[in-house]
Amino acid sequence: MPRPKRKAAVPTRSSDADSSARPEPKKPRGNQFNRIDQLFESYVNKTLGLIDPEGIEALCNDVNVNHTDVRMLIFAWKMKAEKQGYFSKDEWRRGLKCLGADTRPKLKKAIEGLDKELKVPECFEDFYSYAFQYCLTEEKQRSVDIETICELLNIVLKSEFPNQVNLLVEYLKVQNDYRALNMDQWRSFYRFFKEVDFHDLENYDSSQAWTVIIDNFVEWLKEKEKN
Amino acid sequence: MERKTIDLEQGWDYMQKGITKLKKILRETHDEFMLRELEQRWITHKVMVRWLSRFFHYLPPLNGVGLTCFRDLVYMEVRANARKGVITLIDKEREGEQIDRSLLKNVVDMFVEMDKYEEDFEVQMLEDTANYYKSKATKWIEVDSCPDYMLKAEECLRRERERVTHYLHSSTEQKLVEKVQHELLVTHANQLLDGVRALLRDDKVEDLSRMYRLYQKIPKGLDPVENVFKQHITAEGTALVQQAEEASSLVRKFIELHDKYMTYVNDCFINHTLFHKALKEAFEVFCNKNVAGSSSAELLATFCDNILKKGGSDEAIEETLEKVVKLLAYISDKDLYAEFYRKKLARRLLFDRSANEDHEKCILTKLKQQCGGQFTSKMEGMVMDLTLARDNQMKFEEYLQDNTHVIDLSVTVLTTGFWPSYKSSDLNLPVEMVKCVEVFKEFYETKTKHRKLTWIYSLGTCHIIGKFEPKTIELVVSTYQAAALLLFNSADKLSYSEIMMQLNLTHEDVVRLLHSLSRAKYKILSKEPNTTTIWPNDTFEFNYKFTDKMRRIKIPLPPVDERKKVIEDVDKDRRYAIDAAIVRIMKSSKVLGHQQLVLECVQQLGRMFKPDIKAIKKRIEDLITRDYLERDQENPNTFKYLA
Q1: Name one Pfam family in it (chain A) (predicted).
Q2: Residue B613: closest CA among chain A residues belongs to which residue?
């Protein structure tokens, strides 16, 4: 049986070991390179060689964005950060190069405007999947617990689908069938919000390939409407 | 006689004069008389032409010219009236009057020779026929009962066919019959179908046969009849289910119902596949309904169990088993039936309740034929184990000959995979039995090494001698009951908790066995207080005074309700089966749409059970989590196999 495609492993110090897994961003020219690295050093945990949660907290203070803000998640996405709460040097370089920021003020401005990055649907889908992936903290972990899912839904989808997210979160909290969900089920939520009109549930066809939790959710919605 | 010669001109002249005279006559006469004249003249004309041809044989053939002549000069004028005349006579005959059939035949023949049969005669005749029967049908349908109406319809069709042979052209038959059928049978089909319901209800076999015969010739004519047939059977079957109070009578009633309507299919409906299908679909509807909490699968298994315990003549048993297996074909949860059957078979075999080994083998053969080898392989294994056990027991008894310190013991070794799973218990065996078990273990090891024996005492039987004051009685009890009773060899009075502790059984088991010994038919133990339910505070005493007219009595221990466990086990097996099917299908297809996957799944598993879509979806979900499949991101309704 194949192993899960993405391993949530602790990132290594050096960049060489990872070079086969991800395409190396083009090495920025001289000074820019140094400034980005210097910024990294200003937050890094010296023993680990990584930016740890404390460092991230400091960063959040500097850019004036809460660490639970969706923009920090987008930032992590831009970096393709593998482990929640930690940024490696490569990831940092990648992220800042992407944002075109090499000084603290530039970084602050870039992070503040990150929510606009998601306007393009293909980007959003990629980010949406990433958000789930980011919550898989243990090796071989395939599902995320319901509570975290609910938080994630609020962070990631609430701005676009406020009513739907509220209803779904309500349902997830009362149902007993699932205590954790996998990536496929996570993805089905977004697809469902996009494709199905909550006012037109009669046309919903449970014999199609919708996930069982969505089928159950629709049944629950229909019951709710009756009462 | 003087020879008269005529020349061509003269001959021709005669003919024309004759024709003119004919025309005059035809204009002035009507109906039948007209037809007679026409017939006469037509016959004469034909004769004339024939003679002329002979006289003037050296000329090019005159037939064509003769006919043309007749057609142009006579036929064209006369045809409308001739047609009307014929049709009138036909209608008269329909009303029952006698008519001159040869007259009609000749006149019709004229139309044929004129090569105008269809356009000048047939079309009108058919239309008239349609109108005639339309009005008849309208009248009859109001007045006549369904059977009477059909009798009339059948008769009309017969007469019309006869009509064709007597004086119409054979090519008309098909069209004529279609017209009549349409007016009599198709237009009023709905009303007649209401009649079918009554016929079925009143078992009017003859009339149903007629209905079949009549509608069979009409394209798709049988479809509504089949539908009514199916609905009727479904209603009767469903009523049986709703009124049923207990299992065995219901299965018998199903069998009777099936026999009854199979006769209809064979006799009235001449074995037509459409009606076989109707019967099958009807049974599939109500044979899968639950009765008083039990599924039909369980009911059927219980029915088989009862038959095989009771026994009977070989023929009677074989016949009943044959019918039962046929019913099984209609049940969708065949795997559930198999599991119940297996559980009950185990009890029959182990407690020696089976009436006849041949009967057991008989039903297994039939089940195998219908459901395949895999269905019966475990059951066959069970029966085989018993046969082997007998041989083994003989060898064990030989082995025991040297060892007289052991009580009589017979052991049946069961092959784990074949038999239902049983909990092994930690029963504290009475001392007397412990030694036997040890001896058997030694014996078994001499024959087969490296096998683990797990003792299932809950399935054992013991014969105990009860030395009661009035008289000694042999008690045939289960091992659990025996273990409890033997405790009283060393104590007069025991409390519930003492018993439980010494036996090392669960509350459930202790309550059951104490109940069977103190509160059931035979009260071997007396209980204090003397209430019906067994409570942890009760105390028990050996009932010295017990007696019965028999010398040996059986004290059964009622089995635990196995229904829940069976359903659990079957559900588990189904999950595995669905998983296996999905993986198999995806492995060969590599990429498959959801709808198609579900369809193939249901098809593959259909022999054993009908998986519901939700169950399949859940398994797909699980397989995605386990990385057997993934959803195609471009087409979320499609899945891909992950090698």
Answers
A1: Cullin_binding
A2: A207
Q: In what order do the strands lie in the sheet with B461-467?
A: B461-467, B472-478, B552-554
pLDDT single digits (tens) B418-443: 999 888 788 999 988 898 888 898 88
pLDDT tens for B570-625 read: 999 999 999 999 999 999 999 999 999 999 999 999 989 999 899 999 999 999 98
Burial class (CB in 10 A: 0-12, 13-18, 19+), B315: exposed
Separation of alpha carbons B101 and B166, rounded Å: 7
**Which sign, positive or negative, has the C-alpha torsion B91, B94, B97, B99?**
positive
pLDDT score of B4: 67
Å between A154 CA and nearest CA of chain B? 23
Residue B490 near residue B569, CB atoms below 8 Å: no
User: Rounded CA gap, A225 and B10, in Å?
Assistant: 104
Contact between A207 and B627 using a beta-carbon 8 Å cutoff: no
* Same fold? A30-119, A121-226: yes
Tell me the average pLDDT across A61-69. Answer: 87
Residues A107, A101 contacting (CB under 8 angstroms): yes
pLDDT of residue A29: 56
Place of tokens 């219908």: B370
Whether residue B631 is predicted with pLDDT greater than 90 in this model: the reply is: yes
Q: Do B618 and A212 touch (CB under 8 A)?
A: yes
Contact yes or no for A184 and B631 at CB 8 A: yes
> B97-109, pLDDT tens digit by residue?
888 888 888 888 8
Q: Residues of B near A (CB-CB distance < 8 A)? A: 593-595, 598, 613-614, 617-618, 621, 624-628, 630-631, 636-639, 642-643
> CA-CA distance, B605 to B574, in Å (whole number)?
9
Angle between helices B31-55 and B63-70 (to 10 degrees): 150
Residue B219 per-residue DSSP state: T
Q: Model confidence at A22, in pLDDT bands (50, 70, 90)?
A: low
Q: Which of A141, A205, A208 to mutate to test the interface with B (most CBs of B within 10 A)?
A: A208
The pLDDT-based confidence of B2 (bands split at 50, 70, 90) is low
Q: Using the beta-carbon criterion (under 8 Å), do B621 and A209 form an inter-chain contact?
A: no
In contact, B121 and B111? CB cutoff 8 Å:
yes
How distant, in Å, are the alpha carbons of A185, B566, B606 from that of B560?
A: 41, 12, 31
Handedness of CA B398, B404, B409, B411 (dihedral sign): negative
> Where do the structural domains in chain A lie, given as residue ranges?
30-119, 121-226
Q: Are strands B552-554 and B461-467 parallel, antiparallel or unpaired?
A: unpaired
DSSP classification of residue A88: -
C-alpha triplet B19, B24, B26: angle, nearest 5°: 90
Alpha-carbon Rg for chain A, nearest whole angstrom, is 20
Q: How far apart are the first and last CA of chain B?
A: 113
Q: Tell me which fold the domain A121-226 belongs to.
A: Recoverin; domain 1 (1.10.238)
Closest CA to B204 of B191, B195, B192: B195
Q: Cα separation of A155 and B545, whole Å?
A: 81
Taking an 8 Å cut-off on Cβ atoms, the answer to whether A182 and B621 are in contact is yes
List the Cα angle B462/B467/B469 in 5-degree steps.
145
Whether omega before A162 lies within 30 degrees of 0, making that bond cis, reads: no
CB proximity A179 to B under 8 Å = no
Subunit contact B621:A184, Cβ cutoff 8 A: yes
The answer to whether the beta carbons of residues B297 and B248 sit under 8 Å apart is no
- A50 DSSP β-pair partners: A45
Question: What's the pLDDT at B26?
Answer: 67
What's the CATH class of domain A30-119? mainly alpha
Q: Is A7 on the interface with B (CB under 8 A)?
A: no
SS3 state at B149: helix
Burial class from Cβ neighbours inside 10 Å (0-12, 13-18, 19+) for residue B1 reads exposed
Cα radius of gyration rounded to whole Å, chain B: 43
